[in-house]
Design brief:
Layout (H helix, E strand, L loop, with lengths): L7 H8 L3 H8 L7 H13 L6 H8 L4 E6 L5 H16 L3 E6 L4 H13 L4 E4 L9 H8 L4 E4 L9 E5 L1 H14 L5 E5 L5 H16 L9 E3 L6 H11 L4 E4 L2 H13 L9 E3 L16 E3 L2 H17 L8 E4 L2 E3 L10
Parallel strand pairs: 1-2, 1-3, 3-4, 4-5, 5-11, 6-7, 6-8, 8-9
Antiparallel strand pairs: 10-12
Helix pairs in contact: 1-2, 2-3, 5-12, 8-9, 10-11
Length: 339
């Protein structure tokens, strides 16, 4: 039979003293004699007694625990975010509970409820793609649990936020393509129901406007997942005569490169290609992919810092939005004026 951890009541029974005397002995209370403290502590060490951290935290009304709700742990960006969160939480003496929605609204709701029941001090969240109702997050806020959204937000909730500047990132990368000689650039876009997709499309359009290029709505093609990229890429190259493709994420862009290689289309001489995200795969594609860096670790670090300050600050202060500056990573899939 598996042995269980001993409790304060077990120690009290073995030593024939009250549980309150054991508790105060372990806490080095001045009202308890040193002899009794020594006996209690020696017994506790011998039997490997561990204090119940959860019970202690509930008594002090501070669990020193942060909840995290994110779409996918296996995704490079979100795993980087989690590393940033955990490092910042550890510095502040906080533990982290992770709930993964797998881009599913119902799982996200269950995760939020589990964190509420666990009495976490605060929650960091990035919204699932299928989420359009945000009552589960409002319930956390109504329960006086501070929240910080990162990367994907609940648009109508007044909370702190940490975001990459998707608009500026897209604008920067498309300007780079134009300055390298592209004049007919297509955008393989994510569905417009996603806020970040809207911002990247607006950045693409702004770059064309800034460089006085004609905007052709037919060159903006929404794409749900990578299975559609083969058909879209062939159509854009064969029937639209594009000389540049800006993909809304790196996964799309990597597949674009593969299709162009099958078509024996030279990159970047005939068609330049850019992605978004700077995932590890972008360095080992052929050619290596120009992209926009999304610094997940920094996002997580800043978000956790904001949340901890919100938890520990007793005064109400206005919510803030931290908009992080994007970084263009130029590689061989585009022509550069500097080369």
């Amino acid at each position: 039979m598996k042995k269980r951890q001993i409790t304060i009541k077990d120690i009290a029974k073995a030593l024939h003293i009250s549980p309150s005397t054991v508790s105060r002995s372990l806490a080095d209370h001045p009202d308890i004699s040193q002899e009794t403290k020594n006996i209690v502590n020696a017994y506790a060490r011998e039997h490997k007694y561990k204090p119940n951290a959860l019970a202690l935290s509930l008594r002090t009304n501070n669990t020193k625990t942060i909840g995290v709700i994110l779409p996918q742990i296996v995704h490079y960006f979100f795993s980087s975010v989690l590393s940033g969160i955990e490092d910042e939480a550890e510095k502040g003496g906080y533990r982290v509970i992770i709930c993964q929605s797998n881009e599913n609204y119902e799982k996200e709701v269950k995760g939020a409820q589990a964190l509420l029941e666990a009495r976490v001090c605060g929650v960091l969240a990035s919204v699932a793609k299928t989420t359009t109702i945000y009552n589960h997050f409002q319930e956390l806020i109504d329960s006086y649990i501070p929240m910080v959204f990162f990367d994907r937000i609940a648009p109508n909730l007044d909370t702190d936020r940490v975001l990459e500047d998707d608009y500026k990132g897209a604008c920067t990368v498309v300007r780079h393509m134009i300055d390298g000689g592209c004049r007919k650039i297509a955008h393989i876009a994510l569905p417009r129901r996603y806020l970040w997709a809207q911002k990247r499309e607006k950045g693409y359009l702004q770059a064309l406007k800034d460089r006085h290029l004609f905007t052709d709505e037919k060159l903006i093609v929404e794409c749900e997942d990578v299975s559609e990229v083969y058909r879209i890429t062939r159509q854009l190259v064969l029937h639209s005569g594009v000389d540049g493709i800006f993909a809304a994420n790196d996964a799309f862009a990597v597949h674009v490169l593969s299709v162009l290689r099958q078509m024996k289309c030279r990159v970047p001489e005939e068609v330049a290609v850019c992605g978004y995200g700077n995932e590890p795969s972008t360095e080992v594609t052929f050619p290596a992919l120009t992209t926009v860096n999304k610094d997940g670790y920094r996002v997580g670090n800043i978000a956790a810092g904001l949340l901890i300050r919100r938890i520990e600050d007793k005064e109400e202060v206005p919510t803030v939005t931290r908009l992080l500056k994007p970084e263009l990573i130029v590689r061989d899939s585009t022509l550069s004026v500097d080369r």
